[in-house]
Amino acid sequence: MNLNPYAPEDPTSLAFTEPWEYELAFPRDPRGPGIARTTLRAVLDAHHLLELADRAELLTSELATNSVRHSKGPASVRLRWTHPVLRVSVTDTCPYLPLPSAPPSAEAEDGRGLFILDLVSDEWGGCALGDSLLGPGGKTVWFELVLKPATPPPPPPALAA
């Protein structure tokens, strides 16, 4: 029994449709994208959203890897669930937004990130972040995956008269 009237009640698990948000910050280190993928999968598993995990991991890996390659500072990955949409945002210190280009050739070693975002995500975008008292701005690139409703069962057969 808790005798402290100011102590919060024990938390209960959020309902599936309740919104939630997680954020992971990581340094400019080549291990960061792998850690982001592992964390993302753990969060989606805990919230029973493994149906979105493969696509979310692929896209998060693309964006986090680009952050490590093209920025000079730390990055962060934010997961936000607002039923039925999962939004994953990657923020870094590079101020330049990626520019769409023609599909890469089969021999190209890079340049597939935005092409993959277009193919795999339900929606994506980005925005520049202005300079602040804490330092230079950067950018955020995000994607959304929509949880498709389960296929409804077929209607029962009509009864013969």
TrEMBL record:
<keyword id="KW-0067">ATP-binding</keyword>
<dbReference type="InterPro" id="IPR050267">
    <property type="entry name" value="Anti-sigma-factor_SerPK"/>
</dbReference>
<keyword id="KW-0547">Nucleotide-binding</keyword>
<protein>
    <submittedName>
        <fullName>ATP-binding protein</fullName>
    </submittedName>
</protein>
<dbReference type="GO" id="GO:0005524">
    <property type="term" value="F:ATP binding"/>
</dbReference>
<dbReference type="InterPro" id="IPR036890">
    <property type="entry name" value="HATPase_C_sf"/>
</dbReference>
